[in-house]
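Lab channel / #folding
Pinned by the channel admin:
"Please post every new chain as: sequence first, then the structure tokens as a reply. Keep commentary short and put observations after the output so the thread stays searchable."

First post following the new format, from NK:
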Amino acid sequence: MSFIMRWKWAGPAVVVWLLLGWLGSPHVRAQKDKELAGDVYPTPVEPTTASKLYYGVAACQGGSCHDGKPPVSWVDGKQVNVRCDELIRWKKYDKHDNAFLSLQSPRGKRMGQLLGYDPDPKTWKTCLTCHAVWIGDDKLEKASKEVNFKVEEGVNCVACHGHYEEWVPSHSILVTARKFRPLSRSEKWSKYGMIDLKDPLKRAELCASCHVGNMAQEKFVTHEMYAAGHPPLPSFELATFSNEMPRHWQLLREKSPALQKEIGLSPGELEETKLLLIGAAVALRDNMRLLQADAVSNHVKNGDGLDIAHFDCYACHHDLKADSWRLKRGYDKNRKPGRVGLRPWSVELVKLAIAADEKTASTRSAEYEKLVADLNKVFDSRPYGNPTEVAAAAKKLDKFAHELALSLSSPKRIFKVDDTTRLLKAIPTIYEPATKLYDYDSARQISWAHEILKKELVRIRIPGEVQEDNSNLVAVDVELKGINDLLRLRLPRKSTGESLSSEYQTTLERISKWDPFRARSVFASFK
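Reply from TO:
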């Protein structure tokens, strides 16, 4: 049976486990694991004076600033700092709008049956934490419905911008906006509950909570979910995923000079480079936190090993071929044959993030390689790793990645043309395409990073200034055609009618045919 068919038909096997009572209730397990994960994740910082409330999308339409109708009057001397069509773009293009609907699809319903869920997807807490919004409090849910909250709206506005009552009217009505607008971004959060998504670290943490996982927030795609039919989570590169939504917001550099000055964007600052590097550090950090949280979970304490979802999927899920690239590659001399390791993609782009600081790159790189080697070693210590040892090694990598993210996110750390150019040129040296072989997901990460850096540079028209100019991007797309054909760098778009199910079918076919030897020549052309 082929790789694709094996994955497609993996789901029914879960029925056997359910009949045997092996799984228990996924909802109960998630709640217990959330409680145990508290020591791994820092205590969330809540606003000091804002009250929780989940507004519906209706709060942002019907004459507001975001549905194509700029305000007739506004704060004197201040420009409206958005395009005023964000809601239109979100509804037309953004897949987050359809996130809940995927639970109602044939695949979603079948998953619910296999996992023993209630027939109503609105009760699927383990899914809704990422596919929509899970409130979990009857009184708060009743109040939220009074302001038009609907779970069917998927990952709606307040899911990302802040589920608090005060900031929504305060930022959108002239009589209150005149006081709200001058506040610092930190005050808008602490007093009103508006999340500062202009901060690349906060944005990375928010997006990674679903696209990587966060057990304290009950966001974790388990192996049993995969077996029931959940498509495999792809590797996650924040800047690329933002652009591929596509963005319903503007980059800071796309705003007017007056707004750039008000926000604090430095002349010539390349914000996507910074987002790429911070996103890489956060993705690794949050992967390590998932490992630590799982290691102290009830199912591990009860004698089970780490959830198989942490491990390299395609170490097991691949066709057996007499002349495969895996046989040609052989075993890593530092690894034990036959042992399944961590999904490798999250460790790769951190190498580029380390290279951002020339003064510390050499020392940090050596430290990082040792930490990764130590993690691999404990994964190899016994089949599927020793949870206690894995947690200890993951904690060290978590600390390293978190400190790296903090240093990169400092307002004083500004990336300009020279920085981005140097990082772009460093990719062939860091990743050594002539000697190293990369799995599909890791190759995608490296290629996405190359594309982000390359495209950010070609948008520059005036030395020292950053302005939007897409005229040269076609040439970059032509240059990247070879690797795009191999890796499908473009993600499915809502506006083109591409479904995630068909996308994953296409991706699985590419993974099954992946040949890193063939990709070498394409990687070697990166410049």
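NK: Residues 3-47+193-524 form one domain.
TO: also worth noting, Residues 9-23, 462-466 have pLDDT under 50 and may be disordered.
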